[in-house]
Amino acid sequence: MQVLMICMYICIMRNLINRNEYISKLLSFKDKDLIKVVSGLRRSGKSTLLELYRQTLLQMGVHDRQIVFLNFENFELRKYLNDLDALYKYIIKQLDLSVPCYVFLDEIQNVSEFERLVDGLFVKPNIDVYITGSNALLLSGELATLLSGRYIEISILPFSFKEYLMARNVDISNKYLNYEAFFFDYANETSLPKGVELREGGFDKIYDYLDAIYATIIEKDITQRHQINDKRAFGNIVKYVASNIGNPLSPGNISKTLKQDGQNTHNTTVERYLEYLVASFVFYKVNRFDLKDRKQLVTQEKYYLADVGLLNILAGKERTTDRGHILENIVCLELLRRGNKLWTGTARNSEVDFVCKTKTGDIEYYQVAWQVTSESTIEREFGALEKIKDNYPKFLLTTDSFMQNRMGIKHLNVFNWLLY
Description:
5-stranded parallel β-sheet; Rossmann fold
């Protein structure tokens, strides 16, 4: 039994040894009068993050009697999913409320009327509440009303390129390392923590794992929850958006494309399906921003996958036909991971891939391309940034080894930037 516990702990540590930034953020809000909400894609590491945080609390001297950790996807807890009173009593009974206590509610959206439970625990003295969910709708509706101004959301993403290399025990301090080969592994397999573990068993293991996750998200989190009957149309919309990551899309254009394939799906239905996909963290939506008039536009948004490995399921062999957009997807996730708010910038009949508002409120511009080897590509990529007439930092990220700064625009190797 002791050996089993040690093995489980080693597994947890290996999964999240590189996620110290998230742990630090949770610790910074420890015992603060706020509910901590950890959100993100299924299997992106939310449960393991909370488990590692629990281990951190124990190491800090918190006793077992001060902690309750419940995962509502466990079969043993099914009897509480529709009985709030029994669940509340079950939690309280385990705690010593004479000292600060910590309640972890994992995948809380599986509990009927969970808002009442969360609010009831939150107002109880000496209880610090942490919840996770795989759906952004967790923070909509009644819960958002009950907890307005009383929660902090920590959004977790799958492994970054740096975390991926560390999980594979790669020495990232080696300046002679062939990052491009590892990057192809990262982009072609998966960035999900468990998927990285499975790579030793071959690509088939990773594919089956991704296929199971995708099926669970689509069936359990979306089609069942929102009672979608036309599963064929919904599936085609998912595949269409995945095949067009980084391209401006609109519900109307997607609806027209489906109609050409014999499917009559109204653009309002398409819009609703896209909202479900974003809410389940399958895609991240980036709105357009008019750089001239300084206003957000409400059409032609771009969508990026939470894990480009899902392209194996959604796009098959055609997934590598546009490596530039796959690189753009990875840069998008890294910018989000670093705490930026993102838009796509429109300026003088050209577009800048990302307009970023940093955590400190500063503005930065990013253009992404696989390589800039031809004169036409150089003019297109640098030209888009040069049309922005302000003094905020501007960056061009590519895989090139030779950098060529121009007009104050910094040209950076994307692998080095991802590891920064």
